[in-house]
Amino acid sequence: MSANGQAGEYLLETRDLKMHFPIKAGVFKRTVGHVKAVDGVDLQVRKGETLGLVGESGCGKSTLARLILRLHEATAGEVFFEGENILKYDRRQMMKVRRNLQIIFQDPYASLNPRMTVGSIIAEPLRTHKGTTDNIKRRVQELLEIVGLSPEHYNRYPHEFSGGQRQRIGVARAIALNPKVIICDEPVSALDVSIQAQVVNLLMDLQKEFDLTYIFIAHDLSVVKHISDRVAVMYLGRVVEIADRNQLYNRPLHPYTNSLLSAIPIPDPKLERQRQRVVLTGDVPSPANPPPGCTFHTRCPRVQDYCRNNVPPLERQEENGHRASCFFPVVSGQKIEEPTASTPYKAGE
Amino acid sequence: MALLEVKNLKTHFKTPDGIVKAVDGVSFTVDEGETLGIVGESGSGKSVTAMSLMQLNPVPPCFYPEGEILFEGRNLLEASEREMQKIRGDDMAMIFQDPMTSLNPVFTVGDQIMEAVRVHQKVSKKEARDKAIEVLRDVGIANPEKRVDEYPHQYSGGMRQRAMIAMALSCNPKILLADEPTTALDVTIQAQILELMVGLQEKYGTAIIMITHDLGVVAQLADKIMVMYGGRAVETGPTDDVFYDPLMPYSWSLIRSIPRLDKAGEVRLLPIKGSPPSLIFLPKGCNFAPRCPFVKDECHEIDPGLEEKRPGHRAACILSVEEIEENKHRIDAELGVEQA
Ligand SMILES: Nc1ncnc2c1ncn2[C@@H]1O[C@H](COP(=O)(O)OP(=O)(O)OP(=O)(O)O)[C@@H](O)[C@H]1O
Ligand SMILES: Nc1ncnc2c1ncn2[C@@H]1O[C@H](COP(=O)(O)OP(=O)(O)OP(=O)(O)O)[C@@H](O)[C@H]1O
Ligand code: SF4
Ligand SMILES: [Mg+2]
Ligand SMILES: [Mg+2]
Fold this sequence. Notes:
The complex is a heterodimer. By secondary structure, chain A is of the alpha/beta class. Chain A has a domain at 10-251: P-loop containing nucleotide triphosphate hydrolases (Rossmann fold, 3-Layer(aba) Sandwich). Helix content of chain A is 30%, strand content 21%. Chain A is built from eleven helices and twelve strands. Chain A has helices spanning 61-68, 91-98, 118-128, 133-146, 163-175, 193-210, 221-227, 245-250, 255-263, 269-274, 305-309; strands at 12-25, 30-45, 50-54, 76-81, 84-85, 101-104, 181-185, 213-217, 230-235, 238-244, 315-316, 323-324. Chain A has an eight-stranded mixed beta sheet, with helices on both faces. In chain A, strands 2-1-4-5 form a four-stranded antiparallel beta sheet. In chain A, helix 3 (118-128) runs parallel beside helix 5 (163-175) and helix 4 packs across helix 5. The two termini of chain A are 18 Å apart. The relative contact order of chain A is 0.13. By secondary structure, chain B is an alpha/beta fold. Helix content of chain B is 34%, strand content 23%. Chain B is built from eleven helices and twelve strands. Chain B has an eight-stranded mixed beta sheet with strand order 6-7-8-3-9-10-12-11, with helices on both faces. In chain B, helix 3 crosses helix 4 and helix 6 runs parallel beside helix 7. Chain B is globular, with a radius of gyration of 21 Å. Chain B starts with a strand and ends in a 5-residue tail after the last helix. Chains A and B meet through helix 5, helix 6, helix 7, helix 8 and helix 9 of A and helix 6, helix 7, helix 8, helix 9 and helix 10 of B. The structure holds adenosine-5'-triphosphate (2 copies), iron/sulfur cluster and magnesium ion (MG) (2 copies).
């Protein structure tokens, strides 16, 4: 990992990215604190891969996505796209980058303008980037076909479509300008299970066909496992573990990842009867007032005194860049309640 | 006699566009202490079924053209509103996806539980308060003596769900209807709530009807399952039978369409084409025929009823068990999937 420079190895990279939303109160709207929605995230995304991003509600997934697209201006940190820090770009430079960075939102109902025809919705990004009218219509019809809709749908309105079809419209709009990266923010969460598979398969097919790079955000860890090459787990605005898909799911190191995986019900009754669950106590603390030390310590089954006063860095713990931020990571085969190490883990020891 | 027996229940709504056949001939039974899982997609009629049991659908537009809901042998469709008021709470209680549908924001949690207790039992205010504290402790609210006097907005999402369960259980109902109780919650909180429900069921012997679209949740909790599609029960049976040998093409497709946490993810998902039917213009023949991977010509003509295909295992499909098994193998072979 080139921690000190040499950007360009990755298609997309964030460095110590932070978003602290001010909390205002009183008649004078004074800032009385900050919601640390994203609090120091380093992510590297390779060309052509799907990086899954999981975590519970409010952990900062959508905010991170918006920071990368500059829909929010970051409080601190850097976002490198093809080796350049795009947070320093002016409007004109940003326009050029935007066509390469697209997003698909969770809610296929809210994200499409109900008064616009499907044709003009998909054409919008093409127009912004100066296509000719003729070309645009042809391109839109081609896009409709690519996402499995019919070119005849051109003049219809969003309300005439089912949820799954609407999400296809969102996908068509996102791929209209041949972007390099698409951030999918919970693209299937609002859909019925029988429809989710249609959209997941479509996204996977498009990735192969158009050499796309995805950041795939979801709270459903099964869907993320299915689609991702690597997976990052977030908790309270930070990435607490990142690894190759199978390594993360088969040998999670962070106690939070362990509990998260253990909490998910598997549609297999015999397996369910045999499973031993780690059930976490308590709720996720507020990002306005995150706990000191390891932010997971208030719920962690392995917590030691040391964790309460020291912040565990996201460090390499195993091969293939498997990183976790925990002083007492769960060694494979170990019971989660009992840390075996008596001294906190440090990289390189 | 089953604790609850629903026979050919039909719940329809009169609307300007036509009659919505939200529930259209559903039958099932629930025994004491048993858990029935009801699964199905959005709009398949799960909530309307539950609301019918409680007689909480708005009449009109709702009406019940046919069917019986026998609770301990008594037909609830014939019960008066007074009788129903007693049954709701005393015998049957319901919890919802959004706790704020049952919690009133302007009263303290304690007041609301006390109110529920006093409607059904002759107890003093002090006794009701003690009971409220007891049930809050039961559902795992820390510091219940203090928390009892707080308002719902002072509780987190998971705690509100617990408070709602506490309220539902405060009168020891025989059946708890849980309509997507964990859908809005994070998985780690869902795990807490499901663990809590199982614990309370063991302690009090409550029967549970668990409504969810999450097949994992029913796999974890249910003794038996009812799969709903387009207002009908399309498959019912013991949980293991429905999961390992589904006999209705819809249930089979549904199980094959979801990725699994314990599988590597290399297998392509099998989507179900199209989308669920409109409940006003149901297709002729089988409701699932337009989307069914096993469909044959007769399916567009004959409307299949729920029939017993194997002991205790019913499915609404005109295909024989042999034909269904053949089709499953055929499609799996086409996709190169190994049979489990
Ligand atoms: N514009 C904003 N102003 C203030 N706070 C915000 C804003 N947007 C998000 N937040 C807060 O930042 C935190 C992270 O929110 P975010 O939407 O990124 O979470 P998420 O991981 O996407 O959650 P979900 O799974 O529910 O979509 C939350 O506490 C949220 O309330
Ligand atoms: N008061 C009403 N008037 C008219 N139609 C109604 C009414 N209540 C429910 N319906 C219709 O009945 C059908 C079944 O709805 P129901 O709420 O039972 O679905 P569900 O299976 O619970 O779905 P979900 O998973 O989305 O909760 C829907 O088509 C719905 O629009
Ligand atoms: S550092 Fe300590 S509190 Fe944090 S996850 Fe690891 S063991 Fe738990
Ligand atoms: Mg989000
Ligand atoms: Mg419902």
